[in-house]
Design brief:
Blueprint (H helix, E strand, L loop, with lengths): L1 H4 L3 E5 L4 H12 L3 E6 L2 H9 L5 E4 L7 H12 L3 E6 L16 H27 L4 E8 L10 H24 L3 E8 L17 H14 L3 E3 L3 H10 L1 H9 L4
Parallel strand pairs: 1-2, 1-4, 2-3, 4-5, 5-6, 6-7
Helix pairs in contact: 2-7, 4-5, 5-6, 8-9
C-alpha cells in the first residue's frame, strides 16, 4: 500500500474525524500529499500540525456552491492531484419521531452524502485522468445494499452513491479514462456515526487501512470486514439479509 501512495496528491473529504482522520495519517505516513477537506477549521489546523495533511480547505459540503469551489481549488492549486476519496458523511435518525422537523435534515444529508461527492467526482475527472495510476474512491456502506430501520436517508444516500460509482466507472472506461474507480463498503465502525458500545465494531484505523489497501489495488468493490459476510448472505437469501439489517440498532 505504501509504495502505491508514495508521492501521490490525494484529496480527502471528511478528513478530521474517525476513518477520515485515520486515512489522512496513514496516507501521509505512506508519503502521500494529503489535501484535507472538512468543516472544522480548528480540526483542520490540528491535523496539519500533526503531519496529517500538506494543505487543507475549510468547506461545508451542505453548501451547494462548495463542490465547484473544491474542484476549482484543486485544479488551480494542486493540478497534480491523482486521487479523490469521498469520505465525508452525516447520519440522522428516525424520520417519524422528530416532530416533523425533517425536511431540512433530509436535504442536508443527501447533499453531504451524495450530491456533493458526485459533483466533486465529476468536476475532478479531467484532473484525475491526466495522472498515471489515478484513483477515485467513494466510501459507502453495507447499508447501501440492505438498509437499517433507523437511518433511511443515510441508507438511501449510500445506495445512490453505489449506483453512481458503478455507472461512472462504465462511463470512464468507455471514455478511455485510466482511473481506478472504487467503492469501499464498510461494516459497522466505531465512529461518531454509529451508536452503542464499540464491541464488535471495526476500528477506524483498521477500516482506513482496508480502504487504502483496496484502492491501491484498484479493486472496484472493496468489501470490508463484516460487510463481506453481508454480501454472502444477500447472495444466498436476500430476505434473510434484509431481516438482519432491519433489526440492526447500532
Amino acid at each position: 500500500m505504501a509504495h502505491f501512495w508514495n508521492g501521490k496528491t490525494v484529496l480527502l473529504t471528511g478528513a478530521t474525524r474517525g476513518i477520515g482522520r485515520e486515512m489522512a495519517l496513514q496516507l501521509s505516513a505512506a508519503g502521500a500529499l494529503v489535501l484535507a477537506v472538512a468543516r472544522n477549521p480548528a480540526a483542520l489546523a490540528e491535523l496539519h500540525h500533526a503531519g496529517g495533511c500538506a494543505d487543507y480547505l475549510e468547506a461545508d459540503l451542505a453548501d451547494p456552491e462548495i463542490p465547484l469551489g473544491i474542484a476549482n481549488w484543486v485544479r488551480d492549486a494542486h493540478p497534480d492531484c491523482a486521487a479523490l476519496i469521498n469520505n465525508a458523511a452525516v447520519m440522522r435518525y428516525p424520520l417519524l419521531t422528530d416532530g416533523g422537523a425533517h425536511a431540512e435534515g433530509i436535504e442536508e444529508e443527501m447533499r453531504i452524502n451524495a450530491i456533493a461527492p458526485m459533483q466533486i467526482a465529476v468536476g475532478l475527472l479531467p484532473v484525475l485522468a491526466a495522472q498515471p495510476g489515478a484513483r477515485l474512491v467513494n466510501v459507502t456502506s453495507g447499508l447501501a445494499v440492505a438498509p437499517k430501520t433507523d437511518a433511511p436517508v443515510y441508507c438511501a444516500s449510500k445506495a445512490a452513491m453505489r449506483s453512481f460509482t458503478r455507472a461512472l466507472r462504465y462511463q470512464a472506461e468507455d471514455a478511455g479514462f485510466e482511473i481506478g474507480i472504487c467503492e469501499a463498503l464498510l461494516p459497522l465502525v466505531d465512529t461518531t456515526l454509529s451508536r452503542g458500545a464499540p464491541e464488535g465494531k471495526m476500528t477506524p484505523a483498521a477500516a482506513a487501512s482496508a480502504i487504502l489497501d483496496g484502492a491501491a489495488r484498484g479493486t472496484p468493490e472493496i468489501w470490508i470486514g463484516k460487510a463481506r459476510l453481508l454480501r454472502r448472505i444477500m447472495r444466498l437469501s436476500p430476505g434473510l439479509g434484509h431481516g438482519i439489517m432491519r433489526r440492526m440498532t447500532a
